[in-house]
Amino acid sequence: MRRANRRTPAYIIILLTILALVMIYPIYNQLVISLTGPEFISAANGATIIPRDITLATYRSVLAIPKVYRGILNSMLITGLGLVVNIVLTSMGAYVLIKKDLVGRSVFMTLIVITMIFEGGLIPDYFLMRDLRLLDSYWSVILYKAINPYYLIILMRFFSMVPKSLFEAARLDGYGEVRILFNIVIPVSISGIATISLFYGVFHWNEYFRAMIYLTSEVKWPLQVILRELIVSMEKAAFIGAMNYQRLTGAAAIEFKAIKASLIIIAILPILAFYPFVLKYFVKGKTSGAVKE
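Structure (tokenized):
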């Protein structure tokens, strides 16, 4: 039989192109503003498409702030350790819950669904961290949502697609449950692991609210909290300067706009760099070649 010619309709391509441009343009606009000279930002009022009088002075001034370097290192530490905790605990939970003969499985699944609908809130979480003596510790933000119920169910779906013959062959070879999980199930389900790793990684990198509450020492603040503090302080300084000293030139507002844009780019650049390495695993059917037919 001749294979059907399946072409993507033109209207879908046009729609997806428009959606991509709508999502990409704000990031591109901030990049252009951060690279454009101050006088051209003033003339275009920030609505410029091509950077003019390209300069890296704004980035140099931002990266010269010690807080920014420390915030980047803290965010990398929190995200890295958080990913390890998330993947290990979520994988173990998903592997156990896919077993149909698990005693009390329906009860566990019911409790998981309840946590998806109802959350304790910030105050009980804060008291829990206080009672565990984790306040002002990196672990307070690392252990928060160590297992996300949504991602747990996603990973259960991937694990349930692993052929049963792989489990049987592993048990015949004398593998225990831990070795089966880490040596067989996880490698075969690498696309599912990559999917939830991306979700968890973005969550940890962008988290600032609970970090701002749990971490009282400034030296432990992640990048997002540092950037928030810098932007708030610069907004106040720019407003006061523009109102009192620079009503005619508007230099303070121009400089603040470029610095704010550079801070945004610095904050999202690691995530943008992380995406290409993960997206290639978003292809299903990784188990197709795992079993000989």
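Residues 111 and 149 are 10 Å apart (CA to CA). The chain has two domains: 8-55, 66-279.
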